[in-house]
Amino acid sequence: MHEIGIASSILECVAAEAQRHPGSRVLGVGVRIGALSNVDKDALDFAFEALTRQTDLENLKLEIEWRPWRQKCLSCSEEYDVENMDVTCPKCGASHSTCIGGTELDIAYLELEEQPCAKL
Amino acid sequence: MRETVEKKVLNENDRLAAELRQRYRDQNILCVNFISSPGSGKTALLERTLASFAKGRPVAILTGDLQTDNDARRLAKFGFPVRQIVTGGTCHLDARMVDRHLNELGFHGPGLLLVENVGNLVCPSSYDLGEAAKIVLLSVTEGEDKPLKYPGIFHRSSLMILTKIDLLPHVDFNPELAFENARKIHPDMEYIALSSRTGEGFDKWLRWLDALQQKIQQPAAAINS
To answer: How many domains does chain B have?
Structure first.
């Protein structure tokens, strides 16, 4: 539901980062989205496209890396993906665990156009 | 050419939330953030909570909605400073809105800041408001599987309040099943069942809130003494 806001925050971040690379055209942006981030991939794609259409960023590619919900067991230290919404440790059955992944909502990288003159 | 960025998408909100959190620490304020679906009874819970407070207790309330100041008017009757945040369509509160309205309210602590988020179980969970605890409400007229359908918010909340328990005789709702589902997502989450209409379970809720306020404010009090 808030994917427009998320897409808009991504674009703001792209603009800010792009300023650090003057003269380089930004071709794409890579984001990491966790299963607990409440962001829907399709809705984000749609929002991103809607916000970039007929702007300078029209061809900017959004690359989404999906991350599973991961917990670490506090009894046996097993690290596991949470399936079927149950955080119980699949190895020892303990219910006490700590979240080690799945809340990501990160900008991982920018894809910049190669600058031929930069090689000189 | 790939250029590593490694930044939070919501880094601007996170930065403002960190400032708010520092301000709450400096001013000895306990801030709690109430989140639920529309109609789960956030405003009713706050009404009865405020009614139980001694007059003059340092408490302030921010209440968010897409439109209208109905909730602020309901909550203003109890004599504590209230500010309505009309988001104009935005489905959650963010740290900037809280910062602005808190300044307008002129609440400087020490005390309790109650933030009633926009009725929505999805987006509010992504936006840190600098609060010490998120509290998620679930009413008995909803489904017991809501924690499984909306794991993000149940995972992030310290307390789950089951509301409208006076209606239990009239609905097919199994409180134990709801709590069991919540524990699947978040085994350490605390749980209180209450009715804002009859007051049943309210003692436990008020004790929980007082205990958290004491815990948050004790270190500073100890330094001052």
So the answer is: 1
